[in-house]
Amino acid sequence: MEDLLEELLAECRPYTQQGTLANYIPELAKGNIDDLGIYVQRSDGRHYQVGDYKKRFTIQSVVKPILLLLALLDNGEEFVRSRIGVEATGKPFDAINVTDQSLLSEHLNPMVNMGAIAMCSLIKGATYEERFQRLLDLTRTLAGDPNICLDEAVYQSEKRTGNKNRALAFLLKSYGLLQDDVEEVLDCYFKACSISVNSKDLAQVGFVLANRGKLPQTDERIFPSRYAHYVNAILMTCGMYDGSGDFAVRVGVPAKSGVGGGIMAVVPTRMGIGIFSPGLDGKGNSLAGAQVLERLSKRMYLSIF
Ligand code: GLU
Questions:
Q1: Phi and psi at residue 95, in whole multiples of 5°?
Q2: Fewer CB atoms near the end CB (10 Å): N or C, the chain?
Q3: How far apart are CA 65 and CA 59, in angstroms?
Q4: How far is the CA of 164 from the centre of ligand 1 (A)?
Q5: 61 counts as catalytic
Q6: pLDDT tens digit string along 65-101?
Q7: 7, 1, 8: which is closest to 275 by C-alpha?
Q8: Average per-residue pLDDT in the chain?
């Protein structure tokens, strides 16, 4: 397995140059386009890692499945389902999901921004600071990494420039889909996206989803098995933005990408995979990262189809 990962690293490193750093959040444009890290956590307890797997980057949209898990834990499936739909949007992450001039909860998807912003308001907590802290705590627990914290520079950068997200939040508010103060909800969303992680953290979170809610090593249950089913199904249909169909054909496992260059892949019952490479393709997915996953899937028969 080590040899295979080294081979994939060498084969896919040249693809890093074909991607583009996200620059609509100015701080993300400072990333190093050459970075490529891979971490695999297997269900037999073994883990394998190569390249820049220790490098930290912001979680960005890969926080969305964690937000969804917390919303499910706080409110139960029925309630969450009534507030946020599950249909794939087939649209970019920051799409305005308005159909026929109306916006209903069923038009929202937890893996794209509008649904994720709405999800922040479903998290329990007396203040939005407390809600974010609870999300951070869950991220630390799932990743088994108590040192995970906020990247202040990316958070400030995103808060300063996130006017599209502001517009989406006000749209939610105008359709009665957001009850709380827009700036408070957005502050929580911007912080959520700015949590600093590495490839290992993503592999660990992916592993808990693959392991139906139980942590590796201790087997401690963090969420009911049913929630893994719920989240993984949505990742499969919408985790890679409007590239999810292509990814399903090429790789065939539930996964979530973020514009920071991270991809978390879930191979049910077998492994969690964390990849980092900040050069993105036209849809906002890590270009070299998807290449690694495609090759790994073919070599190890990972596709669930
Ligand atoms: N914080 C980013 C945004 O809202 C997340 C986008 C992403 O990773 O898809 O624009």
A1: -65, 150
A2: C
A3: 11
A4: 10
A5: yes
A6: 999 999 999 999 999 999 999 998 887 778 776 666 7
A7: 8
A8: 95
What is the CB < 6 Å shell around ligand 1?
60-61, 93-94, 113, 158, 165, 193, 258-259, 284
Q: What single letter denotes the amino acid at residue 142?
A: L
Q: Quick one: fold of 61-195?
A: Beta-lactamase (3.40.710)
**CA-closest candidate to residue 223, choices 122, 138, 111, 132:** 138
Known catalytic residue at 256: no
Residue closest by Cα to atom 2 of ligand 1? 60
The single residue of 241, 253, 256, 277 carrying the catalytic annotation is: 241
Mode of pairing for the β-strands spanning 271-276 and 149-150: unpaired
Distance in Å, CA 94 to ligand 1 centroid: 7
Residues 6+ apart with CB under 8 A from 2: 48, 50
Question: What is the architecture of the domain spanning 2-54+196-218+228-300?
Answer: 3-Layer(aba) Sandwich (3.40)
**pLDDT tens-digit profile of 190-215?**
999 999 999 999 999 999 999 999 99
* 2-54+196-218+228-300 and 61-195 share one fold: yes
